[in-house]
Amino acid sequence: MLSFEQVSTIISQAIPFFSGIILLILLINLFILLLNLATFVRLRSQDVADDNDQVPLVSVLIPARNEEANIEACIRSLLQQQYGNLEIIVLDDQSSDQTAAIVKHLITKLPDQQSPILRLIQGKPLPEDWIGKNFACQQLAKQAGGKYILFTDADTIHQPGMVRAMIQHMQKLQVQLLSAQPEQIQRSLGEQLIVPLLNFTILTLLPIPLIRLRREPSLATGNGQLLCFERSAYQAIGGHSTVKGKILEDVLLARTMKAAGYRMAYADAFELTQCRMYHSFAEVWSGFSKNLFAFYNYSLPFALVALVLNLLLFVVPPFLLLACAVHGSSAGTILPVLTITLLPLIMRMLLALRFTRSNKGWVVILGLLHPISIILECVILLNSIRWHYRKSGAVWKGRYYPA
């Protein structure tokens, strides 16, 4: 039987090796993040309005289900766009609240020259094999007349130059799909701990420049809050019917576009669009539980490997550092452990500084709680897996989503 001294020696020898492997992975993550922060194109607002004879028609499409708290602000922001050739179509997706009434009221209050811009259509009953939002978007696209179709969510608010910047960027890059990342508004502690992990995951794992430069479908991502297609390309891939039963339709549509040979780009719309996806930890729990296992394509081995890696990379190092301090390890042992503990915190803080408009100090402080965020994400992933295998599903905006 090994003595305490022998066990301590083995642990002391294993820690540098373990730390070295984690350090290598984290340095790769840091390199990808720094590359993305340096090259992530920030779309900017323009003050000059477009002549409607000089620009293509853009159809802005908004699926709306039980959005009475958000829909008016969203539509008003779109009506103020500095773009001269625009139509806005809202689909009331079987809402049980005042969503449709609010849109109708806005239409009646519009000046004569603006009234043709805004339309409301009633959504059809949801077929069994469709996800609600996907069916709503497919119906909207059939009503659109624009050369470009821009899907956005009802809980978004847009600056006047948003549409103009999106179309100009698409034309400049000659892409058929542009998706962009809005500013994510987070007010409750639950939101502030969990929602930034979306940015953290994408920007530390996926080199954003390769989305445009490479044609592999795996090098694609999308954000349904801002998803702009050339309509001809959208129709050529079958639109939302190709992902009709999929929860992560935005990412899968982006991959489908690339697989069909079309080009896409991903941009930073921090200055153009704001969105608050969730309003409490309970909503974060439900929303992430609905989506997280789907992110891993419902592959249990893939999801569990990702869970273990997240724990090893972001949760174990602080505890390992504490153990080294208590054990009185040498500086040569503590230094690599300290490095792998600090690197994720530095990455989280860099993201907080880039993608936060106010209260930067508080958000940076929250970055120190990154291990807690990861633990919560892992628990949510386990819950998402549980929902899937127990077929319990999720209820979101009054509609049941089977797992």
TrEMBL record:
Keywords tagged on the record: Hydrolase, Membrane, Transmembrane, Transmembrane helix
A single GO molecular function term of this UniProt record: hydrolase activity
Glycosyltransferase 2-like domain ranges (all copies): 59-188
InterPro entries, alphabetized: Glyco_trans_2-like, Nucleotide-diphossugar_trans
Annotated transmembrane regions: 15-35, 193-211, 298-322, 334-355, 361-382
Name of protein: Glycosyl hydrolase
Species this chain originates from: Dictyobacter alpinus
Lineage: Bacteria, Bacillati, Chloroflexota, Ktedonobacteria, Ktedonobacterales
